[in-house]
Amino acid sequence: NAGVTQTPKFQVLKxxxxxxxxxxxxxxxxxxxWYRQDPGMGLRLIHYSVGAGITDQGExxxxxxxxxxxxxxxxxxxxxxxxxxxxxxxxxxxxxADTEAFFGQGTRLTVV
Amino acid sequence: EDxxxxxxxxxxxxxxxxxxxxxxYTVSxxxxxxWYRQDPGKGPEFLxxxxxxGEEKEKxxxxxxxxxxxxxxxxxxxxxxxxxxxxxxxxxxxxxxNYKLTFGKGTLLTVNx
Lengths: 112, 113
Hints:
The complex is a heterodimer of chains A (112) and B (113).
Chain A: E1 4-7, E2 10-13, E3 19-25, E4 31-38, E5 42-51, E6 54-57, E7 64-66, E8 76-78, E9 87-94, E10 101-103, E11 107-111
Parallel strand pairs in A: 2-11
Antiparallel strand pairs in A: 1-3, 3-8, 4-5, 4-9, 5-6, 7-8, 9-10, 9-11
Chain B: E1 4-7, E2 10-14, E3 19-25, E4 30-38, E5 45-50, E6 56-59, E7 62-66, E8 70-75, E9 84-92, E10 101-103, E11 107-112
Parallel strand pairs in B: 2-11
Antiparallel strand pairs in B: 1-3, 3-8, 4-5, 4-9, 6-7, 7-8, 9-10, 9-11
């Protein structure tokens, strides 16, 4: 099992560009989330999904979109990148609402 | 106000010098508390889950305990390979948001040989 796979690992964008961060899991988990991690801020929840076709906003959703068309995939879209979105992004999945989260290796995004 | 607070922010130990990390939370209605280890450039790696006060979990040199308002991660006779950032995450009973994890800012542990 690969677990949670994120692509790309690194990305540099110009302000105003759009892109999609990919996340896939092969554990048949219903629950998936996106977090961003900034120095001194801890992990903050951007969006989450409790199953295919169901998504909801987390703590810091502005500037990001998500969709969940399959159980395996949960892409995160940046609509118009801003320097404030420079961060490390982590995707996570959980088997149930009460079990541990498994994290991907992260995507380091720089917006210039 | 932070709901989850980890202390200290950074801890430097000598190899073999035991110590504890703290995770305290201010909201009532704990659903679960999770400890993770994060190495530089990697995603968090799951260590323990605790669900009720008095519960303890152990793995090699690590032991996690839980009271009504805080959790401790005890590190016994640490080795340099235990150096990492340790994250605490709390899940609260909060109506429609029962699923969400709230993370502390982490404790950066350095173990010198």
